[in-house]
Design a protein that fits this description.
There is one protein chain. The chain has 291 residues and is mainly α. The protein has a single domain, classed as ABC transporter involved in vitamin B12 uptake, BtuC (Orthogonal Bundle), CATH 1.10.3470. It has 12 helices and no strands. Helix 2 runs parallel beside helix 7 and helix 3 crosses helix 9. InterPro entries: ABC_BtuC-like (IPR037294), ABC_TroCD (IPR001626).
């Protein structure tokens, strides 16, 4: 095959999906989701809140079903359920001697199970099963507006709280000592996480959304120790993974959300092996050099 033919074939692969309006909606939704989730993932990785993100993403399911039953926007139910889950986790943690991960596991599995029961018991809610796995290429205009709205709200909260979150993440004791309201800082991070989950759930579903909240930050953490650089790297990784995932899923006719998460996993695997500071190859070479 000549070079010109190869270039033409490549351009066709890249341009063909853009002939469809649903691809443009998916690109816009994924871009918003990637930027906000990528930024937030940096703080979540630093404070070790990956399990909390998993809890919130699973806990929204009963809220979505109840919102459907009463005719309310599903985003309202999802946000209410996520905040309820956070309150329940805090209540169990404060009133018992259980470890935090235990209380989180109990709450999110219970609420997720409740959502599954509601779906199976409500025939009109059967179509909500796509909330479990996402449907980015089939996202509606209303869902797109919702994703952009919640993503913008989360971005505004991040811009307002970035300095406070960073100080708290690096030294919570010092933050409390200088008079920072740590409970408020932690609460705003939780609310922001809930907004990002609601914005992202249409794309990748409640089961995979936690990957969007953790993997970009983990990749950035392995590549650099400068937090400002992490805040640049993580959204780029998330956005690039989303774009590649959309194109691959279009041509392979497979789950878009699952493909995006798999692309992120591949990026993490490459960085895990080849990162210049903490990659497996670099650590092994240092070990050989010191021996």
């Amino acid at each position: 095959m000549r070079v010109s033919e190869l270039v033409d074939s490549l351009l066709h692969v890249l341009a063909e999906p853009l002939n469809y309006s649903f691809t443009w909606r998916a690109v816009l939704a994924a871009s918003v989701m990637a930027v906000v989730a990528g930024l937030l993932s940096c703080w979540l990785v630093l404070v070790g809140w990956s399990l909390m993100g998993d809890a919130i993403s699973h806990a929204i399911l009963p809220g979505v079903v109840i919102a459907h039953l009463v005719g309310a926007p599903f985003a309202v139910g999802a946000l209410a359920a996520s905040l309820l889950a956070v309150w329940l986790v805090g209540a169990v943690r404060e009133r018992t001697t259980l470890r935090p991960d235990t209380s989180i596991g109990i709450v999110f599995t219970s609420m997720f199970a409740g959502g599954l029961v509601l779906i199976s018991a409500t025939p009109s809610a059967s179509h909500l099963q796509e909330i479990l796995f996402g449907n980015l290429l089939g996202i509606s205009d209303a869902a797109l507006v919702q994703a952009v709205g919640f993503g913008a709200a989360a971005l505004l909260v991040m811009l307002a709280c970035a300095r406070a979150w960073t100080l708290w993440a690096f030294d919570a004791s010092f933050a409390a000592a200088i008079g920072m309201r740590v409970w408020l800082v932690r609460g705003l991070l939780t609310v922001c996480m809930a907004c990002v989950v609601v914005a992202s759930v249409q794309a990748v579903g409640v089961i995979l959304v936690v990957a969007m909240l953790i993997t970009p930050g983990a990749v950035a953490y392995l590549l650099t120790r400068r937090f400002a650089v992490m805040l640049l790297v993580a959204p780029v990784v998330a956005w690039a993974s989303a774009m590649v995932g959309i194109w691959v899923s279009f041509w392979a006719d497979v789950s878009t959300g699952g493909t995006i998460v798999l692309v992120q996993a591949c990026v993490f695997a490459v960085v895990y092996v080849a990162a210049p500071r903490e990659g497996v190859l670099q650590l092994r070479s240092r070990s050989h050099a010191s021996s």
